[in-house]
Every structure is written in structure tokens, then in C-alpha cells.
Amino acid sequence: MHREGRVATDPESEIHSNEIHELARQNLADAHLQEAYRSSTLRLYEHRLAAIRQVPDFELLRDRARALKREVIEHLDHYLQEFASSAERAGASVHWAERSEEACAQVVEIARRAGVTQVVKAKSMVSEEIELNHALEAAGIRAVETDLGEFILQLAHERPAHIVAPAIHKTRGDVANLFVTHLHSERSEQLERLTLIARQALRRAFAEAGMGVSGANFAVAETGTIVLIENEGNIRFSTTVPRIHVALVGIEKLIPRFRDLAIFLRLLARSGTGQKLTSYTSLLTGPRRAGEDGPVELHIILLDNGRIRTLADPKMREALYCIRCGACLNACPVYRKIGGHAYGWVYSGPIGALITPQFAGLGAARELPFASSLCGACREVCPVRINIPDLLLHLRHQVQSLPRSEASQRVGSPRAEKLSMRLWAWAMKHPWAYSLAAWTGRWMQRLCLMREAANQRWIRSIPWLPLSQWTSGRDLPALAPQSFREMWKKELGRCGIKSR
Which one of 31, 104, 131, 174 is least enclosed by Cβ atoms within 10 Å? Predict the structure, then answer.
């Protein structure tokens, strides 16, 4: 069963990121969806705050993790070779894939050679990235998602809406309806009952599958170990019950040494879900040995698919530090409102706005760097301190520098933007012009629909373009009745001081 969605694996592919505006408008008008995103992201955000307060040296951990990721990315060729050698010594087979088509072909070939007709898949963003389900289905191989969220989305024919919580936009009522339609179960909105229904369906899939596919949260260069982190136990089933295990690993997932893993484990769960540690952490080094459970074969596919292109840009390579915790999505005011599917591809939120143009090509994802308020909330919560706003500005500059042949596809109107910035700069240099503009704004806002909350006045609706586009999705803080300059002059007057 495949997912609906577009494939974007090279600069020639189209992910239609220009649809973000229309999709955003649709999502903003969907009260059901708005509440699902608001409650879920807020809960994860608050859990993170509570979790990091329990770690006195959390900021030091962030610094150390960033330094380790920088070490790996700056010497990626060395660590890739070390990992491949270590994994092969442990008995794993290591494959290299430059593009998604190669990775899919390698998975299909491994399955065909072993006579596999059904595959169970653990949660893996890389498998979503390369559209593995489509490739397996085309080869006559059934793929079953075993992560509960991914399983729900497979039934709904949807892509993940969040890096960590793929079905974050689904309520229990939505899930109940899907299970009735596709699994022919009785309708129940009790979480325990819904989980049991999914468990019964998935247990049969585990027993019948000849191959399991997973991603990797980390890959340890020193030992060739694949590290998998989860809360449900489905990954352990997927990687131990079938006789073959295939791990899809983006080449940026490496960490140098086994002792470094403890730092990332303390960061990832707290940043992503607010836990001290996830329920299950699996360390897999090679296939099973005598007297052990597990797969007879372990295949590790190291995937490029645009990552080397990112590495080649000294400014953008910092994006490869990401450990896929999803914290930036939970903190981002834009993601919270427009949702994950509006971004047009697998990766959403602030980190998606960075890596999608890198992996899919800037021409295909030219809108995404502009899907941000640049408020810096993403940078504040990132466990490895990626300067996401700065990188987004870098990509915005690159978009505006696209060749003239692509001018019709550029974002917005560069001339209008430049003109507005020049007018703003001019007004800031001329106090009389700035004061006149502020007075005009205070007078004109009387014609707008207003509301009051927490002793603050807000503009709910502005009838004139282009400001009406802003208030169609959010409120705008109203201008104060008096400017600071006016208040300051009055205060000086009370003190008998003449203002200049």
C-alpha cells in the first residue's frame, strides 16, 4: 500500500512547493486541523521544557553534540570509510547509493534474491524520502508500516505530517474511522482499544514478513553499530523477527565513537518528546551470531541523495547536523498553523525548509525558505544549535539569484520587496516621515476590526492589500495610542526639560 504524494529526489523533480500558499489557506480554514496541531505541538513543546530543566548541564550537552556533529561532517569521508569497515567486520553488508533510485533498486534486489514477498517497515524518514513503498509495490512486494502513526497514515494514503509524530494531525476520531473502513473493526475512540486493533493487524504482518526495513537514528563509525530509538517496540520486531534486515542510513547520521552516543541519547528524547529516554533503544552490530535472535543477514544502505551537495556549500553544511528530533517543528509558529503537509514533501517545518531545497533542488523547493517568520524559536530549541534563521536567509538570497529563465517561478516580487525596504530605510532616517507614517497607521487602524486580550489590543482584520493577507491567518498587534517619542516629550515637559 503506497502513499499519495510527489517524489522529489533530484533537481529535476518537482515537489510543487509553490502550493504551500494554497495548502496553508486550506489548513488555516480547517478548525479541526488547527486544534489538532495546536494541542499536539504545544504538549510536546511543554514536555521538552520540563525535561531539560531536569538536566543542569543541558546547554553544555548541546555544545558538545554540536562539536561532535561538526567533527563528523567536516571529515565525513573518513568516518564513512571507518563505519563501512567496522560494519563489514561485524558481518554486515554495506551498500552505497548516490540517488534514491539506486537505494530502492538495492532494497528490491535484496528482497527478490531472498524470495521475499512481504516487508515490514519500521519508522524511517529516509524510506519516505526515497519513496520505497512505491518501489516495493511496483516490484510486487507488499510493504506494511509498523509504527502506529505510520500505519495510520498508510491506511489514509498520506505522508507524515511531523518528523517524530507522523500522525500528529489525526485525532482519535479520525483513527477510529480509518480502522472501521480499512480493518473492519468496531468503532471505538478509546486509545487502548485502538492500539489493540492495530496490534492485532500488525502481529500477523510480523509473522509473515521475510524482510524488515528500518532507518537509523545514529550510526557509530567506531563500531559499525546501528542505533534505533522508539517507544512502541515495533522496530525490535521489524529488525529481529524477519530473517533479513535492511537499514537505510543517510550519510549524515554518523557519530564518531561509541562513547559519544550517551550525549545524543540524553538530547534526542528530551528534545523530541520530553522523555528522559525512549522506551526502547536498540544497538545493532552485525547480523545474529550463534545462540542469538535476530536476522541472518544485515544490509546497510548508505544514502547520499543530495547530502553531498549540501556538504559542498560551506554555509549550508550545518543543516546536516540535524538529529531529527522535531523540536523545531513544535516551536515554529508557522508550522503550528499551516501543518506539515503544506511543505509539499517528507520533511516539514523549519528543518524541512532547509534540507528540502538541498535534497530536492532549490528550483523545486524555492518557496520553502520563505515559510518562516525568522523569529528564532527553532534555533533556540535545536539540540545541536543549528542557526536555522541564518541558513534560511542564505537560501532566500539564492532563490532571488536564480537565472532569469526561472524568473517567473521566483517567490514574490523582488522589485516590490526592494522598494518597500528602501522606503522603510528612508523613513527610519527621517524622523518626521516616521512620525507621519505612525500617525497615519494609528488613524487608519480605527477602520479595522479589533479585539482586546491580556490588556493588549489586536487587529483582527485589515481590509486593504497586502496587509489583509497577514490578518487572514493571524492577528496583528495594534499600534499604541501614543508613540514612545510622544510619551518621552511629555515626560521631559513634566520635568521642565526642553526636548530638542
Answer: 31
In three-state secondary structure terms, 63 is helix
The mean-pLDDT minimum among 300-304, 404-408, 475-479 falls in 404-408
Report the pLDDT averaged over residues 414-422: 76
Distance from the first to the final alpha carbon of the chain: 74
Task: Name the grid cell of 368.
Answer: 520553502
In angstroms, what CA-CA distances link 190 with 193, 197, 198, 416?
Answer: 5, 11, 13, 53
User: Is the peptide bond prior to 466 cis by the omega test (within 30 degrees of 0)?
Assistant: yes
Cell of 40: 499536539
Q: Dihedral angle at the C-alpha atoms of 185, 187, 193, 199, nearest 10 degrees? A: 30
Q: Within 114-183, where are the H helices?
A: 125-129, 132-138, 148-156, 172-183
Q: Give the total residue count for the chain.
A: 500
**How many CB atoms sit inside 10 A of residue 469's CB?**
11
Q: What is the DSSP letter of 412?
A: S
Q: Which residue spans of the chain are classified as CATH 3.40.50.10420?
A: 17-308
Q: What is the pLDDT of residue 383?
A: 97
User: 103 by DSSP, 3-state: which?
Assistant: helix
Mean per-residue pLDDT for 126-135? 96
pLDDT tens figures, 328-378: 999 999 999 999 999 989 999 999 999 999 998 888 888 999 999 999 999
- Strand, coil or helix: 13: coil
Between CA 468 and CA 462 the distance in angstroms is 5
Q: Which of 221, 232, 251 is nearest to 322 (CA)?
A: 251
Residue 12 is classified by DSSP as: T
Dihedral sign (CA 251, 253, 257, 258): negative
Greatest alpha-carbon pair distance for the chain in Å reads 93
96 touches 300 (CB < 8 A)? no
Q: Is 214 left (phi over 0), alpha (psi -120 to 50) or beta?
A: beta
Task: List 300's β-bridge partners, or say none.
Answer: 94, 247
